[in-house]
Every structure is written in C-alpha cells, then in structure tokens.
Amino acid sequence: MRLLLFLCNCHDNAVAESFFQLLKRERIKRHIYSTRDDARTDIVEYIEMFYNSKRRHSFNDLLSPVEYEKKFTERLVSV
Questions:
Q1: 54 by DSSP, 3-state: which?
Q2: Each residue of 18-52: pLDDT tens digit?
Q3: CA quadruple 64, 69, 70, 74: dihedral positive or negative?
Q4: Domain count for the chain
C-alpha cells in the first residue's frame, strides 16, 4: 500500500474535481430540489443532454465531447 502512494500523481483527481465544481456551480446551486429523486433526474439530464453533448471543453480544442469523438473517428478512418 505504501508503494502506491509514491506512484500516484497529485493531479489524478483534477478532472473529476473540475467536473464536480462545474456541476455544482452550473446546476446544483441554481436549483432547489424537493426530493433526491428530482435532484438525481435533473443531474443525469444535465450530464447526458448538455455536458456530454453540447458543452465545449478547453481540453478538447473547444469542442463538445461528441464533436471531438466524431473528429477523432474521422481521423482514424482516413488513416
């Protein structure tokens, strides 16, 4: 177990932390949910309908994940 501590990178969680910070800022703090089910439904909808398909990401050359995957697949086919 001790060996794993030396092999881990302190930036491993950076992507997840960035995502959850954004989720809280753009979605959770702007809504008041009456039930956990309402919250769960809204968050899943946000991730599936907006975050994954439309939101542009600086890491992906300002493309949405769907657009980035499409370009990546096109490059693979053309090779």
A1: coil
A2: 888 988 998 899 889 999 999 999 999 888 887 77
A3: positive
A4: 1
